[in-house]
């Protein structure tokens, strides 16, 4: 068993013990409606111009009514597109989930996942989760081709960011039990298709990743309210 897994197991055991003890003491939880995210996406990010995207009917039906959304589709002069969206939870934890749980329902297959660092323009380093996903698309009648997309995300809490779903859950439960507070969480998604082989001059996977990292580097400081 590696050190990282031992640390996780120890942390969860400690939390479980605290939950057992403190819930027996009748701890009351209050919801802190403050959040650590700015829900106003900028109209321009570098060479990209954004256009507001609508929230799907399924999202409105499935997620609690107090869930907040911000969505923009950004396009460059060369035709490259980057999707950016924020989902902010309300009073219920089920507003936020790992994107991996809903991608298969949209026809995507996860090829790999990895936490990577992204340098922000304000000098901070943000750790995000990078997914490489793919699905077949019809490029012409009867002809299908595999489209790869890069899907980067991270969670934003009060004065904290993390790419790890387990850590967000741990921190949420710790605040509930120890401090009697339930903070609102958001997750931010930045995704872009790999257009190499689909359009003339389309970027390959490495080039697309650098483009997305540059995008996050510029937009990240505007979205994350904490300066820590």
Order of helices and strands: HEEEHEEEEEEHEEH
Number of strands: 11
Distance from N terminus to C terminus (CA atoms, Å) equals: 32 Å
The major sheet is characterized as: 9 strands, antiparallel
Low-confidence blocks of residues:
20-27
Determine the number of helices (DSSP H or I, runs of at least 4 residues). Answer: 4
Which range does the strand content fall in? 35-45%
Question: What structural class do the secondary elements suggest?
Answer: alpha+beta
Given the C-alpha coordinates, what overall shape results?
globular
Q: Averaging pLDDT over every residue, what do you get? A: 85
Counted up, domains total 1
Helical fraction equals 25-40%
- Taking Cα atoms only, what radius of gyration do you get, to the nearest Å? 19 Å
Explained architecture:
The structure is a single chain. The protein has helices at 3-23, 57-62, 165-179, 205-223; strands at 30-32, 44-45, 48-52, 68-75, 81-88, 109-119, 125-140, 143-157, 160-162, 181-183, 186-193. It has 228 residues and is α+β, with helices and mostly antiparallel strands. Strands 2, 3, 4, 5, 6, 7, 8, 9 and 11 form a nine-stranded antiparallel sheet that branches. Helix 1 runs parallel beside helix 3 (165-179). The chain is globular and about 55 Å long. The model is unreliable at 20-27 (pLDDT under 50).
